[in-house]
Amino acid sequence: MSAQLIDGKAIAADVRRSVGERVAELKESGIQPCLAVMLVGENPASRVYVGMKQRAADEVGIRTVDERLSPDTSQEDILAILEDWNADPGVHGILVQLPLPDQIDERTVMERIRPEKDVDGFHPINVGRMTSGDPDAFRPCTPAGVQVMLEHIGYDPSGRHAVIVGRSNIVGRPMAAILSQKGPYANATVTMAHSRTADLGAITRQAELLIVAVGRPESVTADMVSEGTVVVDVGVNRVDDPSRPKGYRLVGDVAFDEVAEKASWITPVPGGVGPMTIAMLLSNTATAAARLGGA
Ligand code: GUN
Asked: Which one-letter DSSP state was computed for residue 4?
């Protein structure tokens, strides 16, 4: 492997340390930051993520409250809980883990979260503010975390060609908005590719910074990457592996071993972007608590 590793665990630990300091200051001034977390259904990956988010919050001194709801919960019941959290001065951040079961309209749920408590940055008000360059808007945690990673390795995307593979509202789309903005560690020329892109390799080979978030295991291969590219792999996929105790292992969307031979920097999976998502959620929650106080 010739690429240097972007150590998401270590960078996230740094972010968490600084969030811990902010939380301690808030507590001294009488504010106990609190994150409310909702998980609907039994999606095994979502259960793991929610558990990790709650543990991480606990470690930095953020209190959590949670609602774990059955897969057949009605939308009305979900909205009623959100209304309670919106009105509760003791709750500063609200997170509804996605995806939601089919009977629930995600958009309706996201729009019900009070924008000041929307620490995921998914409410259309925050999406609009962020996209139009408001530095105070909550930024979705995964793309915000990727930008922090670039900062930590000293890679300024300004003037570079960033290719983002994936157009989800959680990662690809906000990532494009963040990197193309005027501002520090941004100013990139951005191309967004997706499942209908013709000749994806021809596009990804143009990337100086390649960010992949498509949810297809090891689908970006060495022939699709140019020498010296900075590669950020957002994918986390379970693939069967009978040799592992759990019967599976986690791989990214990038074929790590072969792409690492060509990249200048690369994120591992696990231990890359994943820990950053959680660290940025904690950071957004501390910000929400500082803004809202006990109100
Ligand atoms: N599902 C996958 N990523 C995320 C995230 O960042 N936030 C929420 N709420 N759900 C997700």
From this structure: E
- Ligand 1 nearest-atom number relative to CA 96: 9
- What band does 295 get if pLDDT is binned at 50, 70 and 90? low
**Position 11 in a domain:** no
Domain that holds residue 61: 30-114
Buried b (16+ CB within 10 A) or exposed e, 30-46: ebebbbbbbbbbebeeb
Residues 263, 211: Cα–Cα separation, whole Å: 12
Give the residue-averaged pLDDT of 222-229: 98
Q: Is the CB of 208 under 6 A from ligand 1?
A: no
CATH code of the domain covering residue 173:
3.40.50.720
Q: Does the pTM of the predicted model rise above 0.85?
A: yes
Residue 46 belongs to a domain with what CATH number?
Answer: 3.40.50.10860
Structure tokens at 204: 């990804």
Q: Do 109 and 154 have their domain in common?
A: no
